[in-house]
Backbone:
């Protein structure tokens, strides 16, 4: 019996050992089975090569950062501080622009400059509000002086213009270029006064588009010489704006299309290269859209009357970007931050305004707005106790009517047209004028 017991015990040990060995082998096979390879379905077929593919990154790996834009494609901003807009100060700004290869003057020597001696230059101001709500007229005077003092001798034309929409504004009836109370050291100095100062010697005039904002016309090339607004037949499917723009004859007989440029009736052609727009907004808060600066200032281009307020409502869906892309992009943006409104704009009475004494310029209106809001308006808004800061922040890309939201939507149509612009501080150079 003892021998039998020993034999039984040995058999049981062998059975148990074989069971454990089998489980171990099975487990080894399971854990060493390779993970199936997932194909990248977004890869273009022409990019697939017959060579051995590079190993794909694991799902847990952090993707590579977006490459930085080369310096030659950067957005440059030039900032002048401690100024009230006088010409002697503005000349320092022009000198700094020249120093950083953002030359104001286009000459035979410097063909990359912005303004040629025979250009027709439209100064797009803000005329809808009196007191500190409109473009500083001392700054306006300095810009006009800078243009007529062109090193090649100025033979072109200057037009000071805006559309206050014949609605809203200080007295609910639109804009004016001849307010009694203005944004200047001498508050009686209107935009009209400034233009009149030069009109006997140079072709300098004003045009308040409020006077034609209800008149729909066709283009010169279609045989229509009347002043008014050209209106697209359909809304943009994405930004929902129905594009409209002014077409008019100046005091000196020049026929201007804001979309196509200068019309020559003798040759029946437009000259777009000769037409330059300098965008001159005031930096301030806005009750509905958070901020009014370079991009929002283009609301003074379309006819809100003819589009039945579609233009104004389209700001939140990117309409100003489509308007710029479809008509004329500013050659230069000169942001008036001499007096700003950090609390309850766009109406800006004298007592509301804060004297920050800053002028900033750039060919990129989005980069300039981004910088100005973060560096000037937002700090002043916080200091003034603004309780609606969420509307001002540049990083809010999802809240309707917030500045960051509609600015990003406005940028898309211009990027699609190939313009190098950015609503960020990436690849942006800020140059300060030496005091």
Residues:
């Amino acid at each position: 019996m003892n021998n039998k017991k020993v034999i039984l015990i040995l058999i049981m040990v062998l059975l148990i050992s074989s069971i454990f060995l089998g489980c171990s082998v099975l487990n080894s096979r399971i854990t060493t089975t390779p993970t199936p390879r997932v194909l990248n379905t977004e890869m273009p077929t022409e990019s697939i090569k017959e060579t051995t593919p590079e190993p794909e990154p694991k799902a847990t790996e952090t993707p590579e950062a977006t490459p930085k834009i080369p310096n030659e494609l950067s957005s440059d901003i030039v900032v002048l501080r401690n100024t009230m807009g006088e010409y002697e100060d503005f000349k320092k700004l022009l000198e700094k622009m020249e120093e950083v290869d953002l030359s104001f003057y286009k000459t035979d020597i410097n063909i990359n400059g912005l303004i040629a001696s025979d250009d027709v230059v439209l100064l797009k101001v803000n005329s809808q509000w009196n007191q500190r709500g409109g473009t500083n007229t001392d700054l306006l005077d300095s810009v006009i002086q800078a243009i007529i003092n062109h090193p090649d001798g100025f033979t072109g034309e200057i037009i000071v213009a805006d559309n206050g929409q014949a609605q809203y504004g200080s007295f609910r009836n639109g804009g004016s270029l001849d307010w009694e109370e203005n944004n200047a050291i001498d508050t009686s100095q209107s935009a009209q006064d400034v233009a009149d100062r030069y009109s006997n010697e140079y072709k300098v005039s004003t045009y308040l588009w409020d006077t034609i904002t209800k008149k729909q016309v066709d283009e010169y090339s279609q045989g229509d010489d009347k002043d008014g607004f050209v209106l697209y037949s359909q809304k943009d499917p994405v930004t929902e704006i129905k594009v409209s723009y002014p077409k008019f004859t100046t005091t000196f007989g020049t026929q201007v299309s804001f979309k196509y440029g200068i019309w020559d009736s003798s040759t029946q052609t437009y000259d777009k290269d000769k037409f330059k727009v300098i965008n001159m907004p005031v930096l301030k808060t806005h009750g509905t859209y958070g901020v009014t600066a370079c991009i929002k200032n283009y609301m003074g281009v379309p006819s809100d009357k003819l589009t039945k307020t579609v233009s104004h409502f389209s700001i939140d869906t990117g309409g100003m970007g489509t308007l710029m892309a479809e008509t004329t992009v500013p050659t230069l943006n000169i942001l008036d931050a001499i007096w700003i409104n950090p609390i309850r704009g766009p109406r800006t009475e004298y007592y509301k305004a804060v004297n920050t004494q800053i002028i900033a310029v750039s060919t990129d209106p989005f980069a300039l707005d981004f910088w100005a809001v973060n560096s000037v308006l937002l700090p002043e808004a916080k200091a003034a106790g603004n309780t609606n800061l969420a509307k001002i922040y540049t990083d809010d890309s999802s809240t309707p009517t917030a500045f960051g939201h509609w600015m990003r939507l406005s940028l898309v149509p211009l990027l699609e047209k190939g313009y190098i612009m950015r609503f960020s501080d990436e690849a942006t150079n800020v140059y300060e004028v030496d005091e």
In short: The helical segments are 2-31, 87-99, 137-148, 191-198, 310-313, 319-326, 365-383, 403-416. Residues 334 and 430 are 14 Å apart (CA to CA).
